[in-house]
Write a structure and sequence with these properties.
heterodimer, A: 259 residues, alpha/beta, Rossmann fold, 2 domains, 5-stranded parallel beta sheet, B: 429 residues, alpha+beta, Cytochrome-c3 Hydrogenase, chain B, 3-stranded antiparallel beta sheet, 14 helices, 13 strands, globular
């Protein structure tokens, strides 16, 4: 039987810290086996050799913050059969989307003299706001087990298994005592998308929402509970304006508390 | 000879996005530009108004490869502002966490980003086809570093367990035992790494640099020390802004940092090694000696050997720290914010990382300044290329281009870091 052509993998970077694509290189036990299953066709952080598109699977890291990148993501989409965004920047605009909340006119006037630049630079936007995205993987950073799951699901033509429920479910599975109920520690776990493995509560710390909102997040209710614990309005705004500040549910909640 | 141009539109095997442009006229290099077009992310701007407690988590996101360095410089600066000193086992745990990051980051660079240049491979994945056992050794060594970070920090990238004053949770001694077993293997693997990279062919390229790094009276520097150089600099981190200045260049999104009145300087493993050789552990010094390094090394191509010696040191030091560890009663010391300015400077894998914050009595950040190592090395990288390229003008262009890339990778440049800090004082031409 003729061996099938290995699918071509590409990794693209926009405004980001590099951490999510590093997650692929952090798969120390699996990396060479992945490299055997796919053709690493475009992955500049790892290789200076590049292969022309089209690409079967594109992993996209980072948010769109410049006019040039807004063009480039269109090219990436055209060259990609299946496009997966990896991480909070690509999926929700990332920490750099904090600029989206500021009255940036004043400081942009100091920074940039070219007006056509200003429009785009005032916002850091997720990839899905620019092109069709086939799958979004959450997290700041992503969980490398979930990344392997996405690649593996792609190779087998199935849907990736990345549950959309809250971090709370994961805490229960781990047997972690609830930090909010037992210790009165404010925790975003009830409204945050699972996937990290519920690390923070296991380290006696409240979740800070780096995987972004879960499906149907009741952020309003959680804010009431936080206030019972003595959290100020200013701290509530900061809590929802973190690494997924521009994700719809978190953005609305922070705006509800911002003066 | 007619004029020619070397252009690399997207530098590979570096962290972040940069390009290289070199113009040659009549066998002379007339222009070198290391262009950094990674989009700026304005960290200093949005740190204003955030809580001092958030600085370690927010600044970690500047770099996915060295988040611990950002967390360490941030907590030290905040503790300095608040008049708090973290000592004893908590300090030792921070040092252990930093060992993990050096092992992870250095091994990534040595095996996956830099060694392929010396051996003529496009990547470590290509190298693995011919030498799978070597690449596997590198991956497992890197994994050991990541295991330290994952245990102490909760996860490898953007650890969650670091806070101003210490940690949220500290490990028991028993939890550290499996790490120690793993580190004993890693120390051997690091020794083999030093031996392996010592056999690489190094261009004869010895330069007269001003090396800058932290120096501590008792230890190889991670979290503390004075900033010193081989040309007389010897200052406290609080004096940083009086001695260093950032210059704007039109072709790059990152500012160039220079020593006032003196110019370019060199940071990172090679600088640390030259300034702190006597503080390395005996096993690391011995390995350096066997690899043919002297206490002074001024060839940046040999930085791969020095980086490997530092991996070995970090494994050795991690073992020492685990052996001496006693779990502290409290995971953190109490910190009360006050109106103050705080300074922090620690040794990131790529060199000294400087943070400065102004906070108010409620701990709200009013002003932040961050200077990462890559922006400090940029000018030195360009200077190297001015001197290096003329020796290889007769090489075919693709080989010459690859040589230039290799010369840049000597510095393990981290371009995401270098660009994040583009701040409000920018003029456009």
């Amino acid at each position: 039987m003729a061996r099938k052509r290995r699918p071509k993998l590409a990794v693209w970077k926009f405004a980001s810290c590099d951490g999510c694509q590093l997650s692929l290189l952090d798969c120390e036990d699996e990396l060479l086996s992945i490299a055997g299953q796919v053709e690493v066709a475009y992955f500049l952080e790892a290789s200076r050799a590049t292969v022309k598109g089209p690409y079967d699977l594109s992993l996209v890291e980072g948010s769109i913050t410049t006019p040039h990148d807004a063009e480039r993501i269109q090219q990436v989409r055209r060259a990609s059969k299946f496009l997966v965004t990896i991480g909070a920047c690509a999926t929700a605009g990332g920490i750099q989307a904090l600029r989206d909340f500021q009255d940036v006119k004043e400081f942009l006037a100091i920074v940039y003299a070219t007006p056509e630049y200003i429009e785009t630079l005032t916002q850091s936007t997720p990839i899905a706001q620019h092109v069709r995205v086939d799958f979004e993987l959450r997290g700041c950073p992503i969980n490398k087990r979930q990344l392997i799951e996405v690649i593996s699901a792609f190779l087998h033509g199935r849907k990736p298994n990345t549950p959309p429920h809250s971090v709370c479910m994961e805490c229960k599975r781990r047997g972690t005592v609830c930090v909010m109920v037992a210790h009165g520690t404010p925790c975003l776990g009830p409204v945050t998308h699972t996937g990290c493995g519920a690390i923070c509560p296991a380290y006696h710390r409240g979740c800070y929402g780096c995987f972004g909102p879960k499906e149907t997040a009741n952020t309003g209710s959680l804010s009431v509970w936080w206030k019972h614990l003595g959290v100020s309005e200013a701290d509530l705004v900061r809590a929802f304006r973190g690494f997924n500040a521009y994700a719809e549910a978190f953005r609305q909640e922070s705006e509800a508390h911002a003066k | 000879m007619p004029s020619k141009t070397i252009k690399v539109d997207y530098l590979a095997r570096v962290e972040g996005e940069g390009a290289l442009y070199i113009k040659i006229k009549n066998r002379a290099v007339v222009n070198v530009q290391l262009k950094i077009f990674e989009p700026p992310r304005f960290f200093e701007a949005f740190l204003r108004g955030r809580s001092y407690r958030e600085a370690p988590d927010i600044t970690a996101r500047i770099c996915g490869i060295c988040p611990v360095a950002y967390q360490m410089s941030a907590v030290h600066a905040m503790e300095h502002a608040c008049g708090v000193t973290v000592d004893g086992p908590l300090r030792a745990l921070r040092r252990l966490l930093y060992c993990g990051e050096w092992i992870e980051s250095h091994t990534l660079h040595v095996y996956m980003l830099h060694a392929p240049d010396f051996l003529g491979y496009e990547s470590a994945i290509h190298l693995a086809k011919d030498a799978p056992e070597i690449v596997q050794r590198g991956l497992q060594l890197k994994k050991t570093g990541n295991e330290i970070i994952a245990l102490l920090g909760g996860r490898e990238i953007h650890p969650i367990n670091v806070r101003v004053g210490g940690f949220y949770r500290v490990p028991t001694k028993q939890e550290l035992f499996p790490l120690a077993e793993r580190l004993k293997w890693a120390r051997e693997a690091a020794l083999e790494t030093v031996r392996w990279v010592a056999t690489f062919p190094f261009p004869d390229f010895t330069q007269d640099y001003e090396f800058v790094a932290l120096r501590h009276p008792d230890e190889y520097p991670f979290n503390e020390g004075r900033l010193v150089s081989n040309k007389g600099l010897d200052i406290d981190a609080t004096m940083y802004d009086e001695y260093f200045v950032e210059e704007q260049v039109p072709y790059s999104n990152a500012l160039h940092s220079v020593l006032k009145g003196r110019g370019a300087y060199f940071m990172g493993p090679l600088a640390r090694y030259n300034l702190n050789f006597d503080k390395l552990s005996p096993v690391a010094r011995e390995a350096a000696h066997t690899a043919g390094l002297r206490p002074e090394c001024r060839n940046p191509f040999q930085s791969i050997v020095v980086r490997s010696v530092e991996i070995l040191y970090a494994c050795d030091e991690a073992l020492r720290l685990i052996d001496a560890y006693e779990r502290p009663e409290s995971p953190a010391v109490e910190v009360q914010p006050r109106t103050a300015r705080g300074y922090g400077c620690t040794e990131a894998p790529r060199g000294s990382l400087y943070h400065r914050y102004q906070i108010d009595d409620e701990g709200v950040i009013l002003d932040a300044k961050i200077v990462p190592p890559t922006s400090q090395n940029q000018k030195t990288i360009e200077n190297d290329l001015y001197r290096f390229v003329p020796r290889y003008l007769d090489l075919p262009k693709d080989q010459l281009t690859w040589r230039c890339e290799q010369a840049i990778r000597n510095y393990d440049p981290c371009i995401s870091c270098a660009t994040h800090f583009l701040n409000l004082q920018i003029e456009r031409e």
